[in-house]
Each structure stands twice: as structure tokens, then as C-alpha cells.
What does this fold into?
Amino acid sequence: MSRLPVYLRVLVDRAERGEHTISSEALAAASGVNSAKVRKDLSYLGSYGTRGVGYDVEYLIHQVSRELGLTQDWATCIVGLGNLGLALANYQGFAERGFRIAALLDADPDTVGQQVAGIEVAHIDECERLVKEHEISIAVLAVPASGAQAVADRLVAAGITSILNFAPVVLAVPDHVSLRKVDLSIELQILSFYEQRRAVEASVREGTARASLAEVTRRKWPKR
Amino acid sequence: MSRLPVYLRVLVDRAERGEHTISSEALAAASGVNSAKVRKDLSYLGSYGTRGVGYDVEYLIHQVSRELGLTQDWATCIVGLGNLGLALANYQGFAERGFRIAALLDADPDTVGQQVAGIEVAHIDECERLVKEHEISIAVLAVPASGAQAVADRLVAAGITSILNFAPVVLAVPDHVSLRKVDLSIELQILSFYEQRRAVEASVREGTARASLAEVTRRKWPKR
DNA sequence: TCCTGTGAATTCGTTCACAGCC
DNA sequence: GGCTGTGAACGAATTCACAGGA
It folds into this structure.
């Protein structure tokens, strides 16, 4: 399911190049997955391809967009206008894809009142009113770790039902709220893990390694 | 394995609060996972807990850090100093966690030469030299989608072995290179999907839904 | 008694392989 | 002949459940 957006991106790209049809094989290659997986994923949509031919690009774009709820636009808010929040607010790709920024929120009195990307930053205390007024369902959280859970609780109470969390903490939210997280340092640490593992492997190949825990552990982890 | 960084964060937090011991149950709850999973994950490290007691927090921090390769620091570079690249360059959490920014790279002549976070932005043409000179192994890619693959190829040729990609494209890299991606619009689209699904479910409960494809499809997807 | 470590059971996602249709 | 749709086989990850040590 998290693959649908990837397919969609490939499809849009192909449509722009004027291609009208695409095979599961081609879509798979461009998306970095297996072709059987593509066919199975698409079969869940009930979208039909044509045997012997492939999938109609335009039609599939329509189906996937609809499945993803992209045929309507979603009002969102960005909470926390530090470095990252500012970058997100200025990011063009937001609106293009049907995610309209309806409000910007911050707790810092110096930030409140400033114009960012054509929108005035409101105080976090306004969140209840703004969420209701603009029917905001999605919040992007770019606040410091220490305040993140409190802000999340407040947003949920205000009526938010989806949160995209950039703060480096594990948030707890009620069942009816969707939560996704983007965590820079976790990503880097994962890369670090594989870097280190390659270093250990290299030293083993060269025979310079001493028997070590890392060595014993080495084979237990998946390939990448 | 991608859970180790999460455990580590929880452990550090507990250590700071002066706790010396933690049970798999408590660690699991704070990490948002099942306790058996925690025990199994930790057993791969060869770290031993104490039956009847739990795990020693300090010792576990040491073990996990070592496994993740965080006992050394990694030289990294940020490529692309648009909104996002700037925010990343100014992000403090980088250096704190052992990821030293050794170079900033951009293709825009107006950006090259500027100081960002105390480092002068170099031209992308310098990447071969800088990667070698600073032994940079990890690159953070914050360039526009259109140029991302070319830049990635170049970085790989220069000797980079890990890439954290923020550009909204599927990158292809050789097997010996690790690749992670962070894609804002994909995350939003996934949230959109669940938002929409909730809307459909609500209309079904209210009896206002017409029989529809979305309705038929509804049950096929995982819970969240 | 409490909590870890781990085989066994289960669930989930992926891939294979081929029947069926264009 | 080419390509989709899908049952069946497979493999990986998760969870159960309990033996055994502190």
C-alpha cells in the first residue's frame, strides 16, 4: 500500500512523456520492485489491465489517485516553524499534490505574526479554532522532541486525525488517528549500521579481524 | 534492525532520568512494540539481560551503540542547499549523534561560497576531491528530483557508500551502496489514503454510501 | 516470583509459475 | 506471443508460550 504513491509518481511521469500504456514489468522496474508485486497491488484496486497489452496509464492514474484520496484536497497545518518547519512551509510540492497548507502554528511569540509562504503564523493556542474553521485533518509536526507529545495530544483533541511527525520521539495517539514518522537520525543510524558492517566484512576478508562479537553477529542480519 | 535506534533513544532517555535497569516490557511500551520482539532483537546483539530483573541500561546503550557503529564518527556531506538542505545543515542533532558534516555541496554559483552553519558551500565539481580528502562515506541528498540520479551516480563514483535521499525519485545505486529515502509527499499520500478510508467507513456506517469500488475494496487493506 | 531467552506456531508479505485472455 | 490475474509455495517477521535462571 505504501507503494501506491511510488507507482503513481512513475505513472504521472510516463503520462507526461506521452506514453499511453505500461506493463507491470516496466512499472516494476521504474519503481524498484518485482513485477508480480505490482500486479498483485494493482489487482487490489480492482483496476484492470489488458492481457497482452498492459495497463492504460491515464486510467491507472485516475484509479490510484482515487484510492489514495487525492481527488480531493486536504487541509493541513504545520506546527513548529524552526528550520525544518520553515523549509516545509516553503516546499512547493505540498500544494501541487493536493495538500493545502491552511495554517501555520508556533508557540514562540517572536515567530507568531510573521508571514511565511504568504501565511501568517498563528499561536498554538489558536489551534482548536483553526482546525475547526478550516476543517484541517492532517498536521505536520516539526516541534522539538520535548514538546511533541503535548502538542500531539492537543491537536488530536482539536480534531486532527492524521499526524506526520518529524520530532525524534515515539508518539502515542488514539487508534482513530493515523501516525507516520520521519526521523532523520534514525535513518542515519541505519546507514551507519550498514557502513560499519561493511567495514567489519572488509577486515574479515583481509584477515585483519580478530574474532569479535560483531563478527559472530555478522551473518544474522538481512542483506540490506 | 531498524528498531535498534528507537531502543537506543529510549535507553538514553531512561539513563538520563537515572534509571539503571529496564525490563523488555517497559522498553517495548516506550518504543511502541511487542515485548517478545524486544527480547528477540536484543538477543541478536548477544547482550544479556538478567532473568528476573531486566537489562542494565548503561550496558545496553553501549552494546547497541557499538552494533550501530555509533562509537565512531562518520563524515557526511549535504548535497543541495535549497530550503531543505539549509534546514538539514543547521540541524543540531547531526553532530550530536556522531554524524559530522564535512562538506556542503551545491551546483548553483550563487550558493557556492556562502557560509552555512560555519561551513563554506563548495561546488559539486569538488565532490570527488572532498569525499576523498575527508573520507566521507555518507551523503545526504537534498537536490531537485530531476538532477538526483546524476548526482547520486557521481557521488557513488567518488566513493560514497551510503545515501540518504530526500529527492522524490526512485534512485538506482550499485549493490555495495546503502540507500534510504525520506519522501514527504509519499508520507502525506499514505495519510491521505487512511483519511479517505475513514471517510468512506463513516459514510457506510451512516448508510449514506452508495455501493462503490472503494466500498468493496475497503476490507482488503491492513488496519493501519 | 519475576523476567529473560528461545523453540514452535502463526501470520504476513513476497515470489513463483501458470492458466486465461487479448 | 505477450502480459495480466491469481492460487500455491515460500520465506521472513512476529507473536506465543514456556522452560529455566536470578
Observations:
- Strands of chain B lie at 21-22, 55-56, 74-79, 99-106, 115-116, 119-123, 138-141, 162-165, 178-181.
